[in-house]
Design a protein that fits this description.
Pfam families: Prenyltrans. Keywords: Membrane, Repeat, Signal, Transmembrane, Transmembrane helix. The chain is an all-alpha fold. It has a single domain, classed as Alpha/alpha barrel (Glycosyltransferase). Strands 1-2 form a two-stranded antiparallel sheet. The two termini are 22 Å apart.
Length: 402
């Protein structure tokens, strides 16, 4: 959500031996054509479903009805077994063993389609698949069978909750997602002081990660990407024996980190120059608002209003969605966000939304889509040297630092 699941994806890169991630999001060559129903104009190979889901969910959050063809594009990305990959250029081709299934993309799609309504068949299959790939510790990794991480486990919890499931009752070998998160929570005291780690390192040790902490707070609270301000609670760090205490501890860590750097988080990406991390700051705002720490959340959203415009314009639809989620969580007007209309800016990255005057018949006509995909899908998208697997374009890009 800071397009934050990229921590999981970058970890997956290391596992499969991918190259060091590039600093910028690749754009398709002039010879490539992107689906007209897709939000964003950059190569969707690693984040197509993710950014589409966030865009649709953000529009729904502010009362905008997305274009029917954009919703249909998302539903057609689903594999027969219920899962979603990051992006399928040709959804008419069956998913096979080479299709890289993605718990994060699947969970984001569930949250978006559940909010939009009318897609119970799609979301039901997706939730069934997520349950089928739950790890023995109760959590999830980015890819099925991958080691559980805080980010992936938390976004799955959000999907389960959105779909009407009770996450604490979704168990594997007697372990729930909350058991997995508690194992990834750092003790009070020291540098970690109640934060969440992304994953244990090779020695089994945990290191504080602000990106994972923002995700872990939401996951521990059983929340998805869209939240309302919670009731103020004590964030004094105490031994976390419950998800609620782990969330409180994580919120305390985020508040301290935000205060230290003037209201925003700093990037911790290996090899990068220190710089503000706008996406993770937006995620932290949502997490703190959900926890009830509205004072710090509002301070940080004011910082985002003043400083995030260039980042959002460069990063695209998922970034605009993150800012909309942060605005919503703090009661800030997303149509006057530091003088910018986030809703309009997000809308400009994709098809025009439906209007109040559109009829059901018109919707069905847009949805029919005969031959819709045959001329849109580009073929032979090459892996750009140095691009890591991850939602780098939307902000989720922190691999755990030692």
């Amino acid at each position: 959500m800071n397009v934050r699941r990229s921590a999981a994806v970058l970890a997956a890169v290391a596992v499969i031996g991918a190259a060091t991630p590039a600093a910028a999001d690749p754009s398709p060559s002039p010879s490539q054509a992107l689906p007209s129903a897709l939000y964003g104009g950059t190569d969707p190979k690693y984040d197509g479903v993710w950014r589409q889901s966030l865009a649709l969910l953000a529009q729904d959050t502010v009362g905008v009805k997305p274009a029917a063809k954009s919703v249909q594009w998302l539903t057609r990305q689903q594999c027969e077994n219920g899962s979603f990959a990051a992006y399928r250029p040709d959804p008419t081709a069956a998913c096979d063993a080479k299709t890289m299934l993605d718990t994060n993309a699947t969970s984001a799609a569930v949250q978006a389609l559940t909010a939009l309504g009318g897609h119970d068949d799609v979301t039901g299959k997706a939730v069934g698949w997520l349950k089928s790939v739950q790890n023995e510790d109760g959590g999830w990794g980015y890819s099925p069978g991958g080691a559980s991480d805080t980010n992936s486990t938390s976004v799955v919890i959000g999907a389960l909750a959105a779909a009407g499931e009770k996450p604490d009752r979704v168990e594997k070998d007697g372990k729930s997602p909350y058991d997995a998160l508690l194992k990834l929570a750092l003790p009070c005291g020291g540098d970690g002081d109640g934060a969440f780690a992304f994953q244990p390192d090779k020695k089994g040790e945990l290191a504080a990660n602000a990106d994972a902490t923002a995700a872990g707070v939401l996951g521990s609270l059983g929340k998805g990407m869209v939240v309302e301000p919670g009731k103020k609670s004590d964030t004094t760090c105490e031994k976390a024996t419950t998800p609620e205490q782990a969330a409180a501890n994580g919120a305390g860590y985020l508040t301290a980190a935000l205060t230290k750097d003037g209201g925003h988080l700093m990037s911790a990406l290996a090899g990068a120059e220190p710089q503000p991390d706008y996406g993770n700051t937006a995620d932290a705002v949502v997490a703190l608002a959900a926890q009830g720490d509205t004072a710090q959340a509002e301070k940080s959203v004011r910082w985002l209003e003043k400083n995030s415009a260039v980042w959002a314009a460069q990063s695209g639809p998922a970034a605009y969605a993150q800012l909309i989620f942060a605005a919503h969580a703090t009661g800030t007007n997303p149509r006057d966000f530091g003088g910018a209309d986030l809703v309009k800016q997000l809308g400009a990255t994709g098809p025009a939304p439906q209007t109040a005057g559109e009829t059901k018949a018109a919707d069905e006509k847009d949805d029919s889509g005969s031959g819709l995909f045959g001329v849109w899908w580009f073929v032979g998208v090459c892996l750009v040297a140095g691009i890591g697997i991850g939602f780098l374009f939307s902000g989720r890009k922190k691999k755990q630092q030692p």
